[in-house]
Design goal:
Layout lengths: L4 H8 L4 H17 L3 H4 L14 E3 L2 E3 L3 E3 L10 H6 L4 E7 L12 E4 L4 E4 L8 H11 L6 E6 L10 H12 L5 E5 L14 H21 L7 E5 L5 H14 L3 E4 L20 E4 L3 H14 L5 E4 L6 H10 L3 E4 L1 H6 L1 H8 L3
Parallel strand pairs: 3-4, 3-13, 4-7, 7-8, 8-9, 9-10, 10-12, 12-13
Antiparallel strand pairs: 1-2, 5-6, 6-11
Helix pairs in contact: 6-7, 7-8, 8-9, 9-10
């Protein structure tokens, strides 16, 4: 069967971006439930979706080196379906302790000429309890690694933000293979301010302390902790965070989230929309942050390269810069599951 995504993309791109997002998830879940998702995407039903090799990262065995970035499956409702597209790991969320609607619509914009997306979703999610119910259902049949991305509720003051992250960690711990603390979304007011050296250190230490409590309560289950940082940090700030990460022994870092810079898309009708820019305009910037962090940070700490992975060559550049794994979001929107398979098959 040929890959039908190019045709599907034409149809989806005729819809409002957020409507297309929800339609895609609904179609994926339905196709997966009927066992035909592989056929629709050009994969042989019932077979291993990609030729790939396992890799050990953070003490976990990943079926391959490519994962789904947080933000695509915010509710944790299509985990098995994304696994059947070939992803070795799926990161769901961002989830917050309580349900929140996110920012007002419209809040998701395509910049097709640039293979980019601007979003200002604002952590719209069902909250931890509902997310755990979704995961219990949608994880069935998934053989990869599950990451859960956590954040703070919009109304939680920054001085109390750690409480939200601790509540999330406790709530998702049993279901997660690893947990990512999102400090870098530009769409929650004041969130990026929490990437300061002292604040980040305190958060990591408190999360590690809570993990030890949960580990004891859950028969020794150890869940790696990851921090996701922004691409808009100055070099000195990256170096300072690298020192914190090395000092605290965080398990991993994701580089990077979306950018607030617009230089690469100036003149586009959506260029001045508030929110984070992802896709091809972010590729070089995110890889540069990754390389700098790798050069400054303890070699035992894993890096997951995210931001602008649009081609296998982009993934290779991140591996060469020091990433153990990569994650895809906007690249999937523009290129479909063929991109996932190509990266997963890389040696």
């Amino acid at each position: 069967m040929p890959d039908l995504y190019p045709l599907a993309r034409k149809i989806l791109f005729s819809l409002d971006a957020e409507a297309a997002h929800h339609a895609t998830l609904a179609m994926m879940k339905t196709a997966d439930a009927f066992g035909v998702l592989g056929q629709i995407t050009g994969l042989d039903a019932g077979s291993d979706p990609v030729e790939s090799r396992e890799i050990e990262v953070m003490g976990l065995t990943f079926p391959n080196r490519v994962g789904l970035a947080a933000g695509m499956d915010k509710k944790g409702e299509a985990i098995s379906a994304f696994g059947h597209l070939g992803f070795g790991h799926v990161e769901v969320g961002t989830v917050t302790p309580l349900w929140q609607a996110g920012n007002e619509k419209p809040r998701l914009f395509r910049l097709k000429e640039h293979e980019a997306i601007i979003n200002r979703m604002g952590f719209n999610n069902p909250g931890v309890p509902a997310m755990m119910q979704n995961i219990a259902q949608s994880k069935k049949g998934f053989s990869g690694v599950l990451g859960i991305n956590i954040g703070k509720n919009k109304d939680t003051p920054n001085e109390d933000f750690i409480d939200d992250y601790l509540k999330c960690l406790e709530g998702v711990y049993e279901a997660a293979d690893y947990v990512t603390a999102n400090l870098s979304s530009p769409n929650t007011k004041g969130l990026r301010d929490l990437q300061s050296e002292s604040t980040c250190r305190e958060l990591i230490l408190r999360l590690q302390e809570k993990r030890e409590e949960l580990k004891s309560a859950l028969d020794g289950k150890h869940v790696p902790l990851v921090i996701k940082i922004a691409p808009d940090l100055a070099d000195d700030a990256v170096k300072s965070l690298a020192a914190v990460f090395s000092e605290t022994g965080i398990d991993g870092v994701i580089t990077t989230n979306t950018t607030i810079e617009r230089g690469a898309v100036q003149g586009h009708e959506h260029a001045e929309e508030a929110g984070g820019l992802s896709g091809a305009p972010l590729t070089e910037k995110a890889t540069g942050i990754l390389a700098l962090l790798r050069s400054e940070m303890d070699d035992t700490i894993a890096i997951i390269g995210s931001g602008g992975v649009m081609t296998a060559a982009d993934a290779r550049a991140k591996f060469d810069a020091g990433a153990s794994l990569v994650q895809v979001y906007t690249g999937l929107v523009y290129h479909g599951a063929a991109l996932v398979r190509e990266i997963a098959a890389m040696k």
